[in-house]
């Protein structure tokens, strides 16, 4: 079947990887936040490719993250569901997609988001991580009951 | 057995609240074992000033045959040396059978409960929760009327006042109509108001106390703190509009009760103390049976 122009562009933008993880269908413009949530920084070993605002038939535009030689666990990738619930995860082994899965929003997130309440005990030097319950209305701080309903990405640690 | 902590009124359902209030009534009537907590030690960790809460917990412990330990001022303890709260409660867990904590940071009691090996009772965390105050507020209301189908007005600083937040959360479990009267900028936090509305609570905002005084059964007054205003003149200007006076109360329902978590400054005219509406000193006294019931609940 002939590839569409969008698919052809995508292919040219990011090379195939031999082994690792491809996170596809990330909400357009959120790839850098996804990388941040996954704790991938310039100091880690993985080769990382990021494509942002790639034309997509279903989503208009999307972001793609490719990570070589590292297979992300379900627990790790579920964290990104908070900012990109339509993301899909492809585990690649020897250039073949061996596993393909969606992301699920976790019920509890720890250490990813900072509580916006300056008076919250989680913003002090105590030996704890921030902890939020994920509820339909937003993220509820386990410690101070503060609710994050918008601008979630600005509170990512 | 799992350690039982009392951190937030949100952790209680209506049945648990009612049972605690019933237990407190029995205690109030003298129907309790005076040595129920004999040999037990309560540690009071107060990192903020307190008169009523601390003394009534200590009084409650003494009436049940137990003893209390405290650290004195924050300056006198290891927190001043930079020790974390987590370490402090781990250490104090080794000295006492339960810990009562007041701390300026919200969520501090929840954190303390995670590190303590004995029960923790929250005695106020920043602008957050103060469950023992809420229980004694409800107990005082219930002494005068059933907490059902009643109109309650919250007056004063509803933004930073933790007693107002805790009470509002608890009242959402009951069939009450909620009236709020507060200065601009000190209204009930929007997130809390939305949460209460979601639970089916009717919240009616008013600008003027005179509009509401004839339509409520309970008037819950809180202190408007001077430091929330840029200067003394604007504070006095605002505070005078929220002052409860005998003149204002002329239009009140006969069975109205006035509550205040105390300390009061100018919010209630001292002449109101002599009127049958005033229940705030009784409310303060009710702290003892409520806290006795709470201490028995976590330590027995």
Plain-language structure description:
The complex is a heterodimer of chains A (157) and B (300). With 157 residues, chain A is mainly beta. Chain A folds into two domains: 5-102, Alpha-Beta Plaits (2-Layer Sandwich), CATH 3.30.70.140; 108-155, Roll (SH3 type barrels). Chain A contains three helices and nine strands. In chain A, the strands form two sheets. Chain A has a five-stranded antiparallel beta sheet with strand order 2-3-1-4-5, with helices on both faces. Chain A has a four-stranded antiparallel beta sheet with strand order 6-7-8-9, with no helix packed on it. The longest helix of chain A has 9 residues, at 5-13. The radius of gyration of chain A is 17 Å and the shape is elongated. Chain B is an alpha/beta fold. Chain B has two domains: 9-129 and 287-299, Aspartate/ornithine carbamoyltransferase (Rossmann fold), CATH 3.40.50; 132-284, 3-Layer(aba) Sandwich (Rossmann fold). Chain B contains eleven helices and nine strands. Chain A binds chain B through residues 117, 119-122, 124-128, 141-147, 149, and chain B through 8, 10, 84-86, 103-108, 110-111, 114, 125-129, 191.
Order of helices and strands of chain B: HEHEHEHEHEHEHEHEHEHH
Q: CATH topology of the largest domain in chain B, anyone? A: Rossmann fold
CATH superfamily of the largest domain in chain B: Aspartate/ornithine carbamoyltransferase
- Spatial shape of chain B: globular
The proportion of residues in beta strands of chain B is 15-25%
Low-confidence stretches of chain A: none
User: Alpha-carbon distance between the termini of chain B?
Assistant: 12 Å
Large-scale geometry of chain A: elongated
Number of domains of chain B: 2
CATH architecture of the largest domain in chain A: 2-Layer Sandwich
What's the short version?
The complex is a heterodimer of chains A (157) and B (300). Chain A is 13% helix and 34% strand. Chain A is mainly beta.
Provide key terms for this protein.
heterodimer; A: 157 residues; mainly beta; Alpha-Beta Plaits; SH3 type barrels; four-stranded antiparallel beta sheet; 9 strands; 34% strand; B: 300 residues; alpha/beta; Rossmann fold; 2 domains; five-stranded parallel beta sheet; four-stranded parallel beta sheet; 11 helices; globular
């Amino acid at each position: 079947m002939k590839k569409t122009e969008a698919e052809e562009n995508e292919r040219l933008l990011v090379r195939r990887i031999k082994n690792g993880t491809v996170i596809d269908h990330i909400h357009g413009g959120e790839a850098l936040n996804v990388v941040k949530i996954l704790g991938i920084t310039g100091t880690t070993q993985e080769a990382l490719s990021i494509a942002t605002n790639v034309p997509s038939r279903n989503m208009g535009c999307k972001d793609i993250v490719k990570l070589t030689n590292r297979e992300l666990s379900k627990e790790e990738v579920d964290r990104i569901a908070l900012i990109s619930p339509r993301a899909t995860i492809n585990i690649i082994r020897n250039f073949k997609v061996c596993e393909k899965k969606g992301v699920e929003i976790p019920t509890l997130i720890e250490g990813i988001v900072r509580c916006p309440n300056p008076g919250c005990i989680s913003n002090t030097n105590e030996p704890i991580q921030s902890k939020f319950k994920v509820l339909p209305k937003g993220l509820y701080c386990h410690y101070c009951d503060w609710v994050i309903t918008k601008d979630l990405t600005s509170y990512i640690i | 057995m799992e350690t039982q902590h009392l951190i937030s009124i949100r952790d209680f359902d209506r049945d648990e609240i009612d049972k605690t209030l019933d237990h407190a009534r029995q205690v109030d009537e003298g129907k309790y074992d005076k040595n129920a907590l004999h040999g037990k030690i309560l540690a009071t960790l107060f990192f903020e000033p307190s008169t009523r809460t601390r003394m009534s917990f200590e009084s409650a412990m003494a009436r049940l045959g137990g003893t209390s330990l405290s650290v004195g001022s924050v300056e006198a303890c290891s927190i001043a040396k930079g020790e974390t709260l987590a370490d402090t409660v781990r250490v104090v867990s080794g000295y006492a059978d339960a810990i009562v904590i007041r701390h300026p940071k919200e969520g501090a009691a929840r954190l303390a409960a995670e590190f303590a090996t004995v029960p923790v009772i929250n005695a106020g965390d920043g602008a957050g929760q103060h469950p023992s105050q809420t229980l004694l507020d409800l107990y005082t209301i219930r002494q005068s009327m059933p907490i059902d189908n009643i109109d309650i007005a919250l007056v004063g600083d509803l933004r930073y006042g933790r007693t107002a937040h805790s009470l509002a959360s608890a009242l959402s479990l009951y069939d009450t109509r909620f009236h709020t009267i507060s200065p601009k900028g000190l209204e009930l936090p929007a997130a809390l108001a939305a949460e209460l509305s979601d639970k089916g609570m009717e919240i009616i905002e008013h600008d003027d106390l005179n509009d509401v005084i004839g339509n409520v059964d309970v008037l819950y007054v809180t202190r408007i703190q001077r430091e929330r205003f840029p200067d003394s003149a604007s504070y006095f200007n605002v505070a005078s509009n929220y002052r409860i006076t005998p003149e204002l109360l002329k239009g009140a329902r006969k069975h109205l009760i006035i509550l205040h978590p105390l300390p009061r400054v100018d919010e209630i005219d001292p002449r109101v103390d002599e009127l049958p509406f005033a229940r705030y000193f009784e409310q303060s006294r009710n702290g003892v049976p409520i806290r006795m019931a709470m201490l028995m609940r976590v330590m027995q």
